[in-house]
Design brief:
Elements lengths: L4 E3 L2 E3 L3 E3 L8 H9 L5 E2 L15 E3 L4 E3 L8 H13 L6 E5 L3 H11 L5 E5 L7 H14 L4 E5 L6 H11 L3 E4 L3 E4 L18 E4 L4 H14 L4 E5 L5 H10 L3 E4 L1 H6 L3 H15 L5 H6 L14 E2 L9 H5 L5 E4 L1 E4 L9 H5 L5 E2 L3
Parallel strand pairs: 3-14, 4-7, 7-8, 8-9, 9-10, 10-13, 13-14
Antiparallel strand pairs: 1-2, 5-6, 6-12, 11-12, 15-18, 16-17
This protein binds flavin mononucleotide.
C-alpha cells in the first residue's frame, strides 16, 4: 500500500506528523517521533519571548486534553544552537519549523531558521482575528524565505474561508487546521477551584472532542481555496481518523492529544494500521483517498427506519433515546411512521446495528 503524499515540492513517506506541542519540544523528542516513522517532523512553536506557564498545565481524560501551556519553554537560540543542529544530523524527512507569532517576530525567526527548515508553520493563536494583520505577517515571512509556509488557524478565528483567501493572496502555501479550541474551562468541583487554568482561569481544549470541528474547518478551507495545501489536525486518534481528514481535504495530518492520552506509541500504531484501514475502506493508496471527492447526498425526506429483527437484542435504547416518541416495544421494536421525523438518531445509537433507514 502506497502511503506517500506530495505537496509544495515535499514528499512525505506517509501523511502522519506530530502537531506542535510538548512531544516535539526538543531534538530528542523529535528524534523519537522520527524513529516512530512519522512522515515529517514539526517542532514545538518557537517564539522570541520566554513563556510564563502556570503549573499544572495539562489535563487529560479519554475524550480531551486541556492545557494552559504556551510556546516553547526553550529560547530561540537554544533551538538554533543545540536542538536543530543535533536533530538534522540524522534527519531524512521534511522538518517543519513552527514559529510564532507577530510580524516583528517573523523578522527575527524566519531568517534564523531558514537554513534548517524544509517548511515553516506559523501559529496565529495569540494575534487576534484581524485578517490584515495575518496577511502582513505572511508578506513579511515571504520576504525572508522561499520555503513552503503554512499558516496555522485557530478555531476562535471566525472566518476560515476569509483567512484562506488572504493568506493565499499574501503568498502562503497552505494552512494547518486547527489549533486547540478555546478559551474553555475546567472546574475541580470538590475543591471549588480552577486547577488547570491560566491567570484568567481558562484552558485550550484538544483531542477527540474537537475532531468534528477540525474536519469542518479543513473542508471549508479546501472547498473555498482548492489550490491551498491543507494539513489537518484536531482529534486524530486512529488510522480511520487520518483517512477522514484526507477525504475532507487534507494532504497530510498531524496529531498530538491522542498520543498524550494513550501514549506516544500511538504514532507507530496508526502508521501500522493505516495500510489495512485504507484497504478496508476501499482505497488503493493515501493519494487515492486524498483525490477522492467526498459525497454529500443531503436529502430532505427519508424513510421511516426499519428493524433487522435478527440483530435486535431488545435493549430498548432506541425507545429511550427517540426524541419524537416514535419507537415502542410491542412484541418487537416498532416505529410509528406518523410520529417519526426520520432524524436517524436511533440508527446511530443502536449498539447492534439492528436499525436501518433505507434511502
Ligand atoms: C499541551 C499542548 C501544547 C500545544 N502547544 C502548541 C504549540 O506550541 N504551537 C501550536 O501551534 N499548537 C500547539 N498546540 C496545539 C496542537 O498543535 C494541535 O493543533 C491541537 O492540540 C489539536 O490537535 P490534537 O487534537 O491532535 O491535539 C498544543 C496543544 C497541546 C495539547
Amino acid at each position: 500500500m502506497k502511503l506517500k503524499t506530495t505537496f509544495d515540492g515535499m514528499t512525505l513517506n506517509n501523511p502522519l506528523m506530530p502537531a506542535a506541542g510538548p512531544l516535539v519540544g526538543d531534538d530528542k523528542k523529535m528524534a523519537f517521533l522520527r524513529d516512530a516513522g512519522c512522515g515529517a517532523i514539526v517542532s514545538k512553536t518557537i517564539s522570541t519571548k520566554d513563556p510564563h506557564i502556570p503549573r499544572p498545565c495539562i489535563f487529560g481524560d479519554k475524550h480531551q486534553v486541556m492545557n494552559s501551556e504556551l510556546w516553547s519553554e526553550h529560547a530561540m537560540t537554544r533551538w538554533r544552537d543545540d536542538f536543530f543542529p543535533r536533530y538534522i544530523k540524522n534527519n531524512d524527512r521534511p522538518l517543519i519549523v513552527s514559529v510564532g507569532y507577530s510580524e516583528g517576530d517573523m523578522e527575527t525567526l524566519i531568517p534564523m531558521f531558514d537554513e534548517v527548515a524544509d517548511a515553516f508553520e506559523v501559529s496565529t493563536h495569540y494575534v487576534g482575528t484581524d485578517l490584515s494583520v495575518i496577511a502582513n505577517t505572511v508578506k513579511t515571512i515571504r520576504k525572508h524565505t522561499d520555503k513552503p509556509v503554512y499558516m496555522k488557524i485557530s478555531p476562535h478565528l471566525p472566518d476560515p474561508e476569509g483567512f484562506a483567501r488572504v493568506i493565499k493572496e499574501a503568498g502562503a502555501n497552505g494552512i494547518v487546521a486547527i489549533n486547540s479550541l478555546g478559551p474553555t474551562m475546567k472546574i475541580d468541583l470538590a475543591g471549588r477551584r480552577i486547577v488547570y487554568g491560566n491567570e484568567e482561569g481558562y484552558v485550550w481544549t484538544s483531542g477527540p472532542v474537537i475532531k468534528p470541528l477540525a474536519l469542518a474547518v479543513v473542508h471549508k478551507i479546501k472547498t473555498a481555496e482548492p489550490d491551498l495545501t491543507v494539513i489537518g489536525v484536531g482529534g486524530i486518534a486512529s488510522a480511520d481518523d487520518v483517512i477522514e481528514f484526507l477525504l475532507a481535504g487534507a494532504s497530510a495530518v498531524q496529531m498530538l492529544s491522542a498520543a498524550m492520552i494513550k501514549g506516544k506509541q500511538l504514532y507507530k500504531k496508526i502508521l501500522d494500521d493505516l495500510p489495512g484501514a485504507l484497504e478496508k475502506h476501499g482505497f488503493s493508496s493515501v493519494e487515492d483517498a486524498i483525490n477522492t471527492r467526498l459525497v454529500n447526498d443531503v436529502v430532505y425526506h427519508a424513510n421511516t427506519p426499519t428493524l433487522i429483527e435478527e440483530k435486535c437484542i431488545e435493549c430498548m435504547l432506541c425507545v429511550k433515546v427517540c426524541p419524537y416518541h416514535a419507537i415502542e416495544f410491542k412484541d418487537k421494536i416498532t416505529f410509528d411512521s406518523e410520529r417519526c421525523f426520520q432524524c436517524g438518531l436511533c440508527v446511530a445509537q443502536c449498539p447492534t446495528d439492528a436499525i436501518e433507514m433505507k434511502p
